[in-house]
């Protein structure tokens, strides 16, 4: 019978199943999805449960580990500075991180996902309140951002790209999803995985 200590294997199965349908899913995203299946807020929460049970949570060594009682403090950053950070940053051949200014903070949106507000904790560092993630900008001599680093389950550097390149990536990804067809048995296997997680998982509360 599966329990929450099988989460890593389930995450790998999920990635393989979606990969067979030409749907890219990163290792960290698959862990976050499995955490949701077990009713946990995020992978870090589930990882703590796994470690407490004597299992290996497979949290990358480079992942930032902030004590749970640390409260990040928002500071004021000039709108002109925020405007210089707005733009597009490439995560992969299929995904772009779009950064926009909204009033006195930034909104960050990954391809295919909703925008998430990010708030300044320094002139170049920003944090989200909705998810456990931070971003930091790499600045050139003229003050323009040349890249950013996403700090979430490790550090993911992303070079800045222009709007035309970002649109090409978005169009390619949309076309790939539109044309995709599931491999025989893949959808059924994925449904069994999700149903099994709900049926076999113990009741846990955050």
Name the structural class.
alpha+beta
- Terminus-to-terminus distance: 23 Å
Q: Regarding quaternary structure, how should these chains be classified?
A: single chain
What share of the residues does DSSP label as strand, in percent?
15-25%
**Count of DSSP strands:** 8
Mean pLDDT: 78
**Secondary structure tally, helices:** 6
User: Quick one: biggest sheet?
Assistant: 8 strands, antiparallel, barrel
Rough outline: flat
N to C succession of SSEs? HHHHEEEEEEEEHH
Can you give the helix content as a percent range? 25-40%
What does the model show?
This protein is an alpha+beta fold and 206 residues long. The protein is 36% helix and 22% strand. The protein is built from six helices and eight strands; from the N terminus they run H-H-H-H-E-E-E-E-E-E-E-E-H-H. The longest helix is centred in the C-terminal third of the chain and has 17 residues, at 163-179. 20% of the residues are buried. The model is unreliable at 59-67 and 200-206 (pLDDT under 50).
